[in-house]
Amino acid sequence: MRIMNIFLKLKSFTVGLLVLSLFINIFLLSCKKSNTIDVGFVAALSGRKSELGVLARNGARLAIKEINERGGIKGKKLKLIIRDNKEDPEVNKTVINDFINGDIKFIIGPLMSKMAKGTLEAINNKNVLVISPTISTEAVKNLDDNFLRIMNYASFQTNIICTKMIKDGMKRTVLIYDLSNKEYVEPIASLFKKKFVSMGGKIVYENSFKEKSKTTFSSIADQIISKRADSILFVTSGIDAAVLCQQLYKKKYGIAKYGTTWVRTGDIIKHGGRSVEGLIFTNIFTSKKKSKVYLKFYDNYIKDYHKKPVFIGQYSYESLMILSKALKESNSQKPAMVKHYIITKGSFQGLQEIIKINKYGDAFRKLSLVVIKNGEFSLL
Amino acid sequence: MKKNLAKIIISSIIAAVVLPLIIIGIINISLSTNFLRLEINKKNTVLIKSLKNQIDHYFEIKLNDIYLLKEIIEKDSGNPALIQFHIDTLIEHQSQLLQIENIKIINKRGIVTAVSPKSLDVLHSDQSRQKYFIEPLKTNKPYYSSSLISPQLNKPIVIFSIPYKDGVISFSLALEDFNKFIADINIELKSQIALVDNTGTYIAHSHTKKALQRDVDNNYKSLKKDYKGNQIVRKLMYDDTSMICYMMMIKKTDWAIIIYESLDELYAPVLRLYLILALGTIAVILIVLLLFTRQIRRIFHNLKEFIERIKKISMGDYDKFVEIPGYEEFDEVANAFNLMMVNIRDREEKINNSLKEKEILLKEVHHRVKNNMQIISSLFNLQSTNIENDEERFQYEKSSSRVKAMALVYENIYQSEDFTHIAFPKYIANLFDSLIGLFNKFDKVTFENRVDDININLNQAIPCGLILNELLMNSMKHGFPNSATGVIIIDFQLRDHVVYIEYSDNGIGFADDIDFESADTLGFTLIKSLVNQLKGTIEFNSNEGIKINIEFPLL
Is A41 on the interface with B (CB under 8 A)? Predict the structure, then answer.
C-alpha cells in the first residue's frame, strides 16, 4: 500500500541519515586527530633551579604561538605538550618514555646535562627525535643518535673564559662548581683546571657544594679570603653565584669574578646587587646591532611574559624554529627524515648568529663575553 | 489534483505530534540552559566575591601586624638588637594565615641590617638591585612582587615591601595558604580558580602545579584591559577547552582572581537533558508512528475490503453485507451502506418484477400482432384461391407475402431476448423459406445467405424485411422463368455502423428498357420508399441477373 511505501521510505531515509552522520563523525574525528603535530617539552619546572625550565618553556611557547600564527606546518598546528622532570633524571626518563608511548615524535628538552644519559637510553632505537636547547655535556658528543642540540659543548665556553682570565692576569683562582648538575659541571671543571694550570695559573681553592647543607656561603667566603685568591670562577646557577658574591662583598674582599653561561639564570643582578658588579661570564652571542628577528622575539617575549628574555628562552625558541623549518622543508613528519634534513643542511640562522650542526647533531655557535656593569649586562 | 490521504495523515502526525515535541524540547532546553547559566553566574559571582573578601581578609590581618611592626621599628630605629627582637617576635607569634617566611630590614643603601629568621648569608647582603627595595623607596608606596620560588624555601612566595624612615622592610609571604585554600574549594566545585599577579603569573591555582611552575595566564592581559571595576564574565579558550571565565581584580595588590568553568562540564547536565529529551522524542515519535501505522493499516485494509464489497454490489451481488470491524464510525458507515444496499436490492427486485411483467406483456403484444398479421396474410391467401386470373391472384399473394414478411419480423421479435432487436440471418432464412414455398421453386433456386451476425431493431427490421421480401419475390417470380434454375445471394455486412446489402441473382435480370429511377410499379415504389424511410441509398444493376446495392445507417 502507498502508506506503507511512505513509511518504508521514511525508514530508509532515517537509516541513511544515521549512516551518513556516522561517516561524517568518523571523518571529522580523523581530521581532528591529524590536524596537529604534537611536540613534547620536558624541563625542570619545579624545584630550586626551575627558573631555567620556566624561561625555556616561555621561549618554546612563544615559538609555537608564532609558528601557528604563520599557518603551522603545511596547515597543521604544532601543539606543545609540557611536562616537568622535577630536576630528576629518573622522572625525566619516565616523561620521555611517556612521550614515546603517547606517539609523540618530536621532543624539545631536557635542559640540564645530567638528563642526557637517561634521555639517550630512553630514545635508543625509538622513532623519536629529541632537540635539547642547552645540554652541553661532552659525554654525548660525536654519537650518531636521535639526540640533537643547539648549544656548544661545555669545553667551548671553558676555553673562552679560561683564556680571558689568563689574559686579565689572574694567577690564583677559586673554582666553585655545583655537582648537582654533574654532567655539565664536571667536564668544565676538569678542563678548566687542566687548562688554567697549563697556562700558568693556580687553583687555590675549590668547592663543589657537596656539603652544601652543612656549609654556609659565609664560611666558603672565609675560605676564599684565607687563600688570598685573586679571582673566582662560578660554574653554578646565578642564585648561588649571587649569594656567594654577597658574602665576599660583605667581607669587603675585592676579587675578580668569572662565570660560565649557567650564571646568567636566576636573576643574578637582583640577588647579587652591587656584589656581582664586574662579574664576567660567557653568554650567548650578542651582536651590538640586533637583527630584526631578534628584536621581534625580544618584544614579543616581553609582551607575553613581562620580563626580558634570557639565553635559555632564546635557545628554546630557536630549537622549535629549527624543528619547524625541518618539518616544512623535509616535507615529512618522520623523525629520521627531519633529522636527516637538519644534519644535511647543517647550518641555520639563529636569532643573532648562525648555528652549525654537524652530522652527530652537535652544535657550534659563537659565544660572547658579558660583564655586569652598573646593574646591567654589558658586552665586552 | 486530488490530495493523498496517506500523505495528509503523515503530515498531520508530524504537525500534531513531532513538531510540538520539538518545539517543547527547544523551549525546555533554552529555558534550562538559561536557568543553568544564571545559576552558574550567581554561584561564581558569590564565589569570586567571597574569594576576594577572603584574600583581603588575609592581607588585612597581615597588614595590621606589618604596620604595627613598622611603627615599633621606627620608634626603636637606633637600637638594632631591639629591632631584631621585634622581627623575631613577629615571625614566631604571627597569625597562621598567610605566613611571613622572612623579614628583612634594609637600609637606604640596600644593605640588609636585620633578618629573621637569622641568616648569615642574608645579613649585610646587598639588595640594592632588588625591585622590592627600589620601588618602595622611589614611590613611597607598598610593593608586591611577582610570584617566585624562594631559593631558601623551595616554595612559591611573593615579596611585600614597605618604606620606613630608614629604608625598606621586606616580607616574604608564603602562598601555600592561597594554594591550599583554592585547592580545597576546587575539590567541591570542579572549576579552575586562579590567583594571578599583575603580570598574569599564577600565584595560586587550583592545579597547584601551575603556580609552582610560574605559569602565565594567557587571558589575563585582555581581561585586565577590559576591567572597569566590576566582575568580568567572558567565554574564552583555556587549556584548549572552551570555558566561561569570571575575573575580579584585588586592588590592594593589583592581583586578580580568575575562575574558569568548563562549558562542557557546565552544560553536561543540560546535554544529558538534551540526550534524554532527544531519545524521549524519538521514542515517542516511533511509538506514535507505530501506533498510527497499525491503525492506518487497519483503516486502509478495511477500506480496501469495503471498496471490493462495493464493486461486487455494483455488479448485483447483494448476498453479503458489508462489515468494517474495529471502529464505531465504520460500523455506522457499514450499517448505512447495508441499509442502502437492502433498499437498492428491494427496489431492483421490484423493477425486475415490473420489467418481467412488461416483457411478458410486450411478448404477448408482439405475438398477437404476429398472429393478426398471419390472419391477414391467410385472409389474402384464402381470397386469392377464389381468383382465377393468375395476375390478380399473384397480387393477392404478394400482399399476403408482404404481411407475412412483417409477421415474420414480429415472430422473431417476440422470440428475441430484448423484444427490440431481431437476429437478421435467421430472419432472412425464414423469409426465403416462406417465399420459396410460395413460388414452389424448391428444386430450382438455391439461396446463399452471406449475412453477418447482425441484430436490427424493430423500426429498421420491418422496412428492411419488406425490401428483401420485394426483391426475393421479384427474383422468384421473374428471374427464373420456365423452370430455370439459379441462385440468389444476399450479402449483408455491417461496417462502421453502416449496413451494406448486396442482393444478387443469376436470373434473366431486368428488362432492358426499364428505368429504375422512374419505374412506378408498386414493388419499386415500395422499395424506394422503404429505402428512404431507412435514410439509405439504393443502386440497381442488371447484367446477367440482377445486382442491387443498398446501404443505410444502423440505428
Answer: no
Measured distance CA(B201)–CA(B197) in Å, rounded: 6
Q: What's the pLDDT tens digit per position in A26-81?
A: 555 554 456 899 999 999 988 777 888 999 999 999 999 999 999 999 889 999 99
Is A7 in Cβ contact with B289 (below 8 Å)?
Answer: yes
State which residue of chain B sits closest to A275, comparing Cα positions.
Answer: B126
* Closest to A283 (Cα-Cα) out of A306, A315, A254, A255: A315
Query: B445-451 and B486-495 as β-strands: parallel, antiparallel, unpaired?
Result: parallel
Q: What is the bridge-based pairing of β-strands A106-108 and A129-132?
A: parallel
Task: Please answer yes or no on whether B200 and A271 come within 8 Å at the CB atom.
Answer: no
Nearest CA distance, B114 vs chain A (angstrom): 14
Q: What is the pLDDT of residues B518-536, one digit of tens each?
A: 777 888 888 999 999 999 9
| Chain segment B126-168, per-residue pLDDT in tens | 999 888 999 999 999 989 888 777 766 667 788 899 999 999 9
ipTM of the complex: 0.76
CA distances from B421 to A229, B179, B454, B492 (A): 154, 118, 9, 16
List of chain A residues whose C-beta atoms are within 8 Å of the C-beta of residue B152: none
Q: Residues of A with CB below 8 A from B216's CB? A: 58, 304-305
Q: Which residues neighbour B498 within 8 Å (Cβ) at sequence distance 6 or greater?
A: B551, B552, B553, B554
B216 at interface of A, judged by CB pairs closer than 8 A: yes
Contacts of A15 in chain B (CB under 8 A): none
The DSSP result for B198-261, as a single string, is TTSBEEEESSHHHHHTT-B-TTHHHHHHT--SS-EEEEEEETTEEEEEEEEEETTTTEEEEEEE
